[in-house]
Automatic annotation (TrEMBL):
InterPro entries: NLP_P60_dom, Papain-like_cys_pep_sf, Peptidase_C40. The chain crosses the membrane at residues 26-48. One of its GO terms (biological process) is proteolysis. GO terms for molecular function: cysteine-type peptidase activity. Pfam families: NLPC_P60. It comes from the Bacteria. Residues 233-361 form the NlpC/P60 domain. PROSITE patterns: NLPC_P60 (PS51935). The keyword Cytoplasm does not apply. The keyword Magnesium does not apply. Belongs to the peptidase C40 family. It comes from Eisenbergiella porci. The lineage of its organism: Bacteria, Bacillati, Bacillota, Clostridia, Lachnospirales. This is Peptidoglycan endopeptidase.
Length: 361
């Protein structure tokens, strides 16, 4: 069965999350390609913006209920209704787990957010009560434990009970879903699930760039990259000076570029812009630019001013890159740190998460 237009828009809206900058970026690229189609681009942007609004509304309605906007497409309404029904089945399955297994209770927002990312926008999915139970069980590990209990007459005995341990590490969680439930979530679906979780529980979007994603402690993204023997940088020292001039400036994805606010990719883009070199505006696209233009280098060839990229979680972007910094020489880096809330100068950290090195000359 061919997916409907609304279904495709729904999936695209989830993939982009609630970040309107992404839609604006799409339109900017199209404008650069073909000026005569500006009117069509405006229509696309309006459609995309509306889809993003519908997506946010769909998440809130599916999780919390409420008034369905008249302007919302009929397909979206059907998806929301099916989600609400499925959430009822998930709650029943989680209630059963909580009743028979003592221990940690899994975050139901997270359970439902993963389900939402897997099935929202699907015209047909048929799940049985056993399917919902198996899905819910994927979020906990079960252990047989013993404890000593005191009877009414004062005697003690040892009894065995089943304990549930909530899975919090996201890498372990999605591996468990694959092995127990039989569904392998794509990197995009994994990222979408976390975005939906943040929106439903905290009414905010999940950070897409940064160095502080403890939920993904076992994650190491990236891929194979060809490295090149590039000439020495002529502006690397100046780039480092520029990066150092921003030390202590506050971190913000939302306000980056306003006043002293910056995030990791805006810092690197700004530094290179000052020396007359233009690179894209996100960490992942900066990485893509370097790979596609044969500007990648090996780690042992790093020089001051080169860029270092990390992957801390799947985000559906190029090489799942989530962070970038300016190599400052002698094993040090300058980066706008999400975890520290500001631009810092520190050791070249988390070598196991580094996935790419480049020299944008």
């Amino acid at each position: 069965m061919e997916p409907t237009t609304a279904a495709m828009i729904a999936k695209a809206a989830i993939a982009v999350g609630t970040n309107k900058k992404a839609w604006t970026g799409i339109a900017s690229v199209l404008v650069g390609i073909c000026i005569p189609f500006i009117l069509a681009i405006v229509c696309i942007l309006n459609l995309a913006s509306a889809a993003a609004d519908h997506n946010r509304a769909a998440v809130r309605l599916a999780f919390h209920g409420g008034f369905v906007p008249i302007s919302m497409p009929a397909d979206y309404k059907e998806y929301i209704y099916k989600m609400q029904q499925s959430f009822g089945q998930i709650d029943a399955a989680m209630d059963e787990i909580d009743a028979v297994a003592e221990g940690d209770v899994q975050d139901r927002y997270l359970v439902k957010a993963v389900f939402y990312s897997l099935y929202f926008g699907e015209d047909w999915f048929w799940l049985t009560e056993a399917d919902y139970k198996r899905f819910a069980e994927s979020f906990v590990n079960f252990e047989e434990r013993t404890r000593t209990v005191t009877e009414e007459d004062g005697t003690e005995k040892v009894e065995t009970y089943q304990a549930s341990i909530a899975i919090t590490d996201k890498v372990e969680l999605f591996e468990r879903i694959k092995s127990h439930y039989g569904v392998a979530a794509t990197y995009e679906q994994q990222s979408n699930a976390v975005n939906v979780w943040h929106l439903a529980k905290y009414n905010t979007t999940a950070p897409m760039e940064g160095d502080g994603f403890d939920d993904w402690s076992n994650w190491n993204g990236g891929g194979d990259v060809t490295y090149y023997d590039l000439p020495a940088s002529e502006v690397g020292g100046k780039v480092v000076e520029l990066a150092m001039s921003r030390l202590g400036h506050p971190y913000s994805q939302t306000y980056r570029g306003k006043g002293d606010y910056t995030d990791c990719s805006y810092l690197t883009m700004w530094c290179y812009r000052q020396v007359g070199i233009t690179i894209p505006g996100t960490a992942a696209e900066q990485g893509r630019y370097l790979v596609e233009n044969n500007l990648t280098i090996a780690k042992e060839d790093l020089q001051p001013g080169d860029l270092v990229f990390w992957s801390y979680k799947p985000n559906g972007r190029f090489m799942n890159i989530t962070h970038v910094g300016v190599y400052a020489g002698e094993g040090m880096v300058v980066d706008a740190s999400y975890s520290k809330g500001k631009v810092v100068y520190r050791n070249l950290f988390d070598s196991d998460k580094q996935v790419l090195y480049g020299r944008p000359q």
